[in-house]
Amino acid sequence: MAYVLFKGNQRISLRLEDMRAERISRIFQVNADSLFLTDSANVAVFPLDSGDFCSLDLTDHGHYEVHGSALQADALSPSVSQRSFAFTQRPSSSPMVNFAVPYRRSSTLRSFQRSIHISEIHDGHLVSSRVVVVRFAESEANVPNIMEKIKAAMGNEETYVLTNAQGNEILQSEGTTGSFYWSPNSRKVHAVERAAFTDWQRSRIQSRRVHEASSLQTLKLQIEELLESSKGLESISRQIEEIVATVQGAAQRANLVTVLKDTFMCPICRGTKNISSQNVLTKTL
User: Fold this and answer.
1) Residues 146/138, Cβ–Cβ less than 8 Å
2) What SS3 class is residue 277?
3) Largest CA distance in the chain
4) Burial classification of residue 16, based on how many CB atoms lie within 10 Å of its CB (0-12 exposed, 13-18 middle, 19 or more buried)
5) Angle in degrees, CA 100, 102, 105, rounded to 5
6) Are 35 and 67 in contact (CB under 8 A)?
7) For a Cys staple, 197 with which of 88, 93, 192, 241, CB 3.0–4.6 Å?
8) Which domains does the chain carry?
């Protein structure tokens, strides 16, 4: 990647490795602390805390004007002053050459960004109301840092919970650490206020328990109907009464399945594959 920087009549092309505030300030003789760029749409681009410009903020081969307060004359070293005039010197007999300042390759701090949906809970479903785009480095790609960035973007003291699209909480772990997990925006991530999420989880558990209790009650009624229709068959009635008593004390449906299998198990082959209560009643009658 390369970018064209200019200030007044001075123009230079720099690679991404050279897009550093300290280096640009020396080339254009401006203060590094006040340095920033503007693109063709007059949008300001500032360097990261490390002094590097992020490639996500720049367009390849884009033109950017350099801004910043001028350096004091005594702050310039002789070597820098001599190199600064090299940009205006070009031999008339030679082709156009890019007189960029010699650079030493250095590893730039790469950053990533992703969208986080600030969501609310309506009728038991997550509904996105806002989107926060967070930027992070590789070392910040984990649950605690992402939540801190969301809190800073929202500008409040609320505690948030990160969830996936199904509403399951994303916990900090080895699998959720690193840019490979957080950088793909195809994986939708929601941020829900902790208080609202806790209430939602509680209501989901209560709803699940009510559903399980309702299922057991329905099954109990069906067995009671079977018991009523089997009056006169003493042995079957006794067995079904035992099943009903077991259902009343069962906490899960799995207990009832076990009792039914034990009740109708063939005493010879010890199998239940082709034996059901309906078959037993039909053959008996």
Assistant:
1) no
2) helix
3) 119
4) middle
5) 115
6) yes
7) 192
8) 2-88 (3.10.20), 111-198 (3.10.20.90), 230-284 (no CATH)
**Dihedral sign, CA of 186, 139, 169, 196?**
negative
Higher pLDDT, 206 or 60: 60
Of all residues in the chain, the percent with pLDDT exceeding 90 is 15
How is residue 22 written in tokens?
């300290």
- Give the pairing of strands 160-163 and 190-193: antiparallel
DSSP E strands: which ranges in the chain? 2-7, 10-15, 36-38, 44-45, 63-67, 111-122, 125-137, 160-163, 190-193
Helix (H) or strand (E) holding 225: helix 194-229
Residue 5 and residue 12 in contact, taking contact as beta carbons nearer than 8 Å: yes
pLDDT digits (tens, 9 = 90+) for 219-260: 777 777 776 766 656 666 677 777 767 666 654 555 555 555
